[in-house]
Amino acid sequence: MKFEMTKYEGGWIEVIVGCMFSGKSEELIRRIKRAIIANQKAVVFKPKIDNRYDFNKVVSHNGISVEAIVINNSNEIRNYVNDYEVIGIDEAQFFDNELIDVVEELADNGKRVIIAGLDQDFRGEPFGIIPNLMAIADSVDKLHAICVICGAVATKSQRLINDKPASYNDPIILVGSKETYQPRCRKCFNKPIKSHTN
User: Are 133 and 106 in contact (CB under 8 A)?
Assistant: First the structure.
């Protein structure tokens, strides 16, 4: 019996999540580069707010990178994707709710969409639209870091302000790297306590 391989023509949504320093951007870049090696046309988007390392590239914490289109809102993605088969989106937690519709539309039109983002904010709570993206995804990978305190598996992003844990009422969005965040395990994570005012 002879088997014939046919190219998969359907769309697909992949979501890569985890805490800070778990390798989300690195994994996104790896998948994009593999698609390019396979002669697939790929493009990567990043939010304008993420100006760490390089303005026009997605750069992992260990320095690997890929060119990216910087956008202000998720609706702009529609302006660039017609000629591409694979679409990468980094730091998805910073995008607006429209990204959910954009991603579904892309997948329905046969595109492979690879999304990376933080699944929890610095308080340990679901971050922005990531839970919704995980729900509609065809594949979800949760990556882990190593706790800087005890060496256990880290799933939390500890925000530090002047070397002390941030308070619950601090702004949710604060773009930073090692100077602001540490990967922590559940035991070593100092969960900000919600203050009650009368």
Answer: no
Catalytic residue among 14, 26, 27, 91: 91
Question: Hunting for tokens 């529609």 — which residue is that?
Answer: 78
Average pLDDT, the chain: 88
Going along the chain from its start, the domains and CATH numbers come out as 12-143 (3.40.50.300)
**Residue 164: its pLDDT value, please?**
76
pTM flag (> 0.70): yes
Q: Which residues contact 59 (CB under 8 A, 6 or more apart)?
A: 25, 52, 53, 65
- What is the full DSSP assignment across 115-160? EEEESB-TTSSB-TTHHHHHHH-SEEEEE-EE-TTT-SEE-EEEEE
Q: What b/e string do you get for 115-128 counting C-beta neighbours within 10 Å, with b at 16 or more?
A: bbbbbbbbbbeebb
- Which amino acid, 187? K
Is residue 91 among the annotated active site residues?
yes
CA distance linking residue 37 with residue 87, whole number of Å = 15
The H or E element that residue 13 is part of is: strand 12-18
Rg (CA), the chain: 18
Pairing status of strand 12-18 against strand 139-143: parallel
